[in-house]
Amino acid sequence: MMDFDLMSSELKVADNHMLSDSCQKGSQHLMEIILVCKKYLSGAMLKPMKISKDHDAGFRADEDPRIDGEKKRAGGSSPRKGRRYIHMAVVLGIIALLVLGGLKAVKVRRLISLVRQDLAGVQEITSGPLPRMEQLKVLDSELDVLRNDFSKLKAETESFYWLGPLLGWSPVYGGELSSIRDLVTVADSMLACADIVYQTNLPLMDKDELYSLGPAQLTDLLLQAQPQLLNAQIRLDDALAARSRLDPDQLSPEVRDLLIADVDPLIMLMQDGLAVAIDLPRLMGATNEGPKTYLLLLQNEDELRPTGGFITAAGTLLIEDGRLGKLKFQSSEFFDNWDRPYPVAPWQLSQYMNSRVLTFRDTNWFTHYPTAALYAEYLYSYSNSHSVDGVIAFDQRMLIETLRVTGPVAVEDVSYLIDAENVTAYMRAAKKPSAADLAGDDWNNKIFINKLAQALFTKVLSGEVSWEPLVAVMLKSLEERHLLLQFDSYAMTAVLDRRHWDGAVRPGDGDFLMVVDSNIGFNKTNAVVESGFAYDVDLTDLQSPTASLAVFHKNNAATIPLCKHWNKVRVPGEEEYPITDCYWDYLRIYKKAGTELAGAAPQFVPDGWMILRQKEQGRVDVLSEEIEGVQGFGTLKVLMGGESLSTGFEFLLPEDILDSMPGSSKLNYHLKVQKQPGTSGVPISIRIHLPKNAVLESMPGGAVNQDNNILFETSLRTDLEFDVTFSMP
User: Fold this and answer.
1) Which of 23, 433, 561, 623 could form a disulfide with 437 if both were Cys (CB 3.0 to 4.6 A apart)?
2) CB 626 within 8 A of CB 616
3) Helices in 166-295 by DSSP H: which ranges?
4) Helix residue ranges, H only, 48-179
5) Distance CA 278, CA 493 (A)
6) Tell me: the pLDDT tens digits for 339-369?
7) Number of other CB atoms surrounding residue 640 within 10 Å
8) How far is residue 77's CA from residue 80's CA, in Å, rounded to a whole number?
9) pLDDT higher for 16 or 94?
10) Pairing state between β 720-727 and 666-674
11) Which helix (H) or strand (E) holds 214?
């Protein structure tokens, strides 16, 4: 007989399918025993039974049980009679076990219910992007209750671990019984991990110091706590390993929903939190790797580009032992070094902007931020002798939200306080030099950025502002794509990937849509441009799903007589910050790989409107941008001031956008709409047309259904996940 590994070096005597067969045979054997017991009881009541042709157990009609009893008293015994007693004993034993097991199951289920209630209490405290200090202080008592109830549950179940794999055939709860060891390990390890982390931070919470720590203090605290954090990581790894062995499809609906809806998000939260806490001292230059330098990209969404806006300025931030060094920004053209060979520019920049090579300021032409960050770091090295350890991009919206938290700041050479309401106007006006500025030798149109950054840093590091709302702003900016991060760290890269904070174009399962505008007009006209889109999906033919997309733009700039791409005549007062102009846009549409373009209505653009005087007949480009799982399409649009224009596309969708739900006739349509960084609240409309005989099972809240035509309207502030489930008769 061959041995098979069950877990690690543990041995079992059969593989999975053999065990499954054994369970089935065991069930059949149990039924046979019960039937034998029934027949025995019939004989014990002195009612004669006939022997069937199948040799069923029983008495012959001419047998008298009393004679048999006399023979037994005389010392004789009947083998058949002995077997009956054995069978009866086995059946009674099984019945007793079933009764005891039922009582045990009732108790276990009651404890499971208590644990779930306790978990809900903990989740309520820790819900939201950042729990408040008063919430964290009461978490200890909630964790105590959860630990106590779970310990009781563990004590009730651990003596039956060995039996669990043998009961996988049981109806409804067979999956839980066969996976009981892993289910308990997940919960036990997560609790241990949470307890270690909480106890590590408890002294700070008692003193209300957690959110008042400066960067250097926080870094030192995490450095000292590394042994405890690494121990917590070990316990969490145990939970992750046990979770990987669980198959949700084998669990009862109640436990499956608990695992997927509650436990999995909590595991990811703990996983990411620990990864950040363990890696942060290194990122803050407090390990033997030495100080760290980060490249900061200031993106201006008034000149919208794929990752948030034109790179108007960039700077570096040096961090050592958690202490932030001086931050200095420069205009993006100062990072060019024409003594070095530059890569060829993407063809759109060459054809539409006459840019033959890719310069530092255009590195965010790539929609996939990891690619843009890689090019930015590479071209930064052309003018600097040192490398950087990460690339951080942010836009004006994040600056505005930060000022809402810090309050007004005093900026050098500005006679009034700068706050969230006037900072945009201040930055636009600061680009125009005064007579005093022109009299000096060191003025440039980005010098105001350093003054504003210094004022903000001074206020934040002074301790006047709590870190709690600042961290909340950062998390909100990450979710809304006003802040993009890239670090040279495996741990942080994994966290950013799981949280979708890395700016990657990520299609996922099902249908996918991302609409991306790129201003190629040498202006800031996006400040007055409105946009929106409508996506219409036709699922009436399940074998050939199709979709149409209409992308709408309106240029609210004042009407000008001619769209002149170069050598423009600027509106008075806008010489340094031109807003009133035509809007030149290279529009990109990203769909799931396998999507085909079936039709489009692109715009004809006269040659006089373009810098190279090449007319555009109106075409849609099929793009090859090497983004995994994505197919891109692009087209040129030009809008005069006061003009509106809608551009339409027709697509043939892949069949696999519909997901068949196991064990049912239900189908699920999933759509992910990814938000372009730098945009705010773009209105979108989604229509889904189901087959006429389909039965709608579920749709998103706020959606409206009329005759199997579903309408959903919203403003795109974060990525959107959209699901419609229906069944076919």
Assistant:
1) 433
2) no
3) 174-178, 180-206, 215-224, 226-244, 253-257, 264-283
4) 65-73, 79-126, 133-137, 139-157, 174-178
5) 14
6) 999 999 999 999 999 999 999 999 999 999 9
7) 17
8) 9
9) 94
10) antiparallel
11) none
> Which has the closest alpha carbon to 319: 297, 291, 300, 342?
291
Sign of the four-CA dihedral 354, 359, 362, 363: positive
Asked if 410 contacts 455 with a C-beta cutoff of 8 angstroms, the reply is yes
Q: At residue 53, what are phi and psi to the nearest 5 degrees? A: -65, -20
Sign (positive or negative) of CA dihedral 201, 206, 208, 209: negative
Q: Which of 107-116, 261-270, 456-465, 669-678 has the highest mean pLDDT?
A: 669-678
324 and 587 Cβ atoms separated by less than 8 Å: no
Residue 44 above 50 pLDDT? no
* DSSP letters spanning 629-681: TEEEEEEEEEE-TT-EEEEEEEEEPPGGGEEEPTTSSEEEEEEEEEPPTT---
DSSP symbol at 685: E
Query: Residue type at 145?
Result: V
Rounded Cα–Cα distance for residues 157 and 661 (Å): 32
The separation between CA 62 and the C-alpha centre of its own chain, rounded to angstroms, equals 78
Mean pLDDT of 691-711: 96
For 249-274, how does the pLDDT look when each residue is reduced to its tens digit (9 = 90+)? 888 888 888 888 888 988 998 999 99
User: Across residues 618-628, what is the average pLDDT?
Assistant: 95
Residues 634 and 66: their CA atoms lie apart, in Å, by 97
- The C-alpha atoms of residue 367 and residue 346 are separated, in whole angstroms, by 12
Dig out the tokens for 263 from the structure. 């436990």
Residue 546 CB neighbours (<10 A): 17
Contact by Cβ (8 Å): 78, 72: yes
SS3 content of the chain, % helix, strand, coil (to 5): 45, 20, 35
Whose tokens are 């890696």? That residue is 279
Query: What digits encode the pLDDT tens for the residues 361-371?
Result: 999 999 999 99
Phi/psi of residue 5, nearest 5 degrees: -75, 130
Determine whether 613 is exposed, middle or buried from the number of CB atoms within 10 Å of its CB (0-12, 13-18, 19+). Answer: exposed
- Bridge partners for 11 per DSSP: 5
DSSP class per residue in 312-323: EEEEEEEEETTE
pLDDT 10s digits, 482-541:
999 999 999 999 999 999 999 999 998 999 999 999 999 999 999 999 999 999 999 999
Give the residues across from 689 on adjacent strands: 538, 709
| Amino acid (1-letter code) at residue 319 | I
Mean pLDDT of the chain: 84
**Residue whose tokens read 């109640």:** 254
Indicate the length of the chain as a whole number: 729
**CA–CA separation, 117 and 105 (whole Å):** 18
Burial (0-12, 13-18, 19+ Cβ within 10 Å), 449: buried
Q: What angle do CA 355, 356, 362 make, to 5 degrees?
A: 50
User: Is the distance from CB of 414 to CB of 461 less than 8 angstroms?
Assistant: no
Strand partners, 711: 687, 704
Reported as a pLDDT band with limits 50, 70 and 90, residue 25 is very low
Q: Angle at Cα 395 formed by Cα 394 and Cα 399, nearest 5°?
A: 95
Q: In this structure, how many other beta carbons lie within 10 angstroms of the beta carbon of residue 29?
A: 10
Query: Residue 475: what residue type?
Result: L
Tokens of 153: 């549950």
Strand 390-395 relative to strand 292-300, pairing:
parallel
Q: Cα dihedral sign for 519, 521, 522, 528?
A: negative
Q: Under DSSP, is residue 308 helix (H, G, I), strand (E, B) or coil?
A: coil
H/E/C letters for each residue in 366-407?
CCCHHHHHHHHHHHHCCCCCCCCCEEEEEEHHHHHHHHHHHC
What pLDDT, on the 0 to 100 scale, is given for residue 87? 60
Q: Where is pLDDT greater, at 248 or 157?
A: 248
